[in-house]
UniProtKB/TrEMBL annotation:
Residues 22-79 form the Potassium channel domain. Keywords: Ion channel, Ion transport, Membrane, Transmembrane, Transmembrane helix, Transport. The keyword Membrane applies. GO terms for molecular function: outward rectifier potassium channel activity; potassium ion leak channel activity. The keyword Ribonucleoprotein does not apply. GO terms for biological process: stabilization of membrane potential. The chain crosses the membrane at residues 56-78. InterPro entries: 2pore_dom_K_chnl (IPR003280), K_chnl_dom (IPR013099). It is found in: Membrane. This is Ion_trans_2 domain-containing protein. It holds the Pfam family Ion_trans_2. It comes from the Eukaryota.
Length: 110
């Protein structure tokens, strides 16, 4: 399929050249770049030239460690948010429990 136009089926060549988008349009290129950084892989579009392949390798060698550092920072931030939220919710439940127990004791509901 490399180097050939897209066909609707094996017998009929596409008459309209604008029917299919170019192989390296903006969105697939962005998806390919993000798939390199996240190491998920995206095999339907890959660089065809040797220079493009080397650029992608260099981009990955620089970008993957930076993505790991970003993921660690995001994880640390989310951990702090969850722990602070849990602490506040725990204090609220403790207060409600004290109020409930004091009401039970005051009105001798046990």
């Amino acid at each position: 399929m490399e180097g050939r136009e897209f066909w609707l089926n094996a017998d009929d060549e596409v008459a309209d050249e604008g029917l299919f988008a170019p192989r390296w349009s903006k969105l697939p290129s962005l998806l390919y770049a993000l798939s390199i950084l996240t190491t998920t892989g995206y095999t339907s579009s890959t660089p065809a030239t040797l220079l493009g392949q080397w650029v992608a390798i260099g981009y990955g060698l620089i970008g993957i460690p930076l993505m790991v550092l970003a993921a660690v920072d995001i994880g640390r931030f989310l951990s702090e948010v969850v722990l602070k939220t849990y602490g506040k919710v725990f204090v609220i439940f403790q207060f409600q429990n004290k109020v409930f127990v004091s009401l039970i004791i005051r009105y001798d509901m046990i």
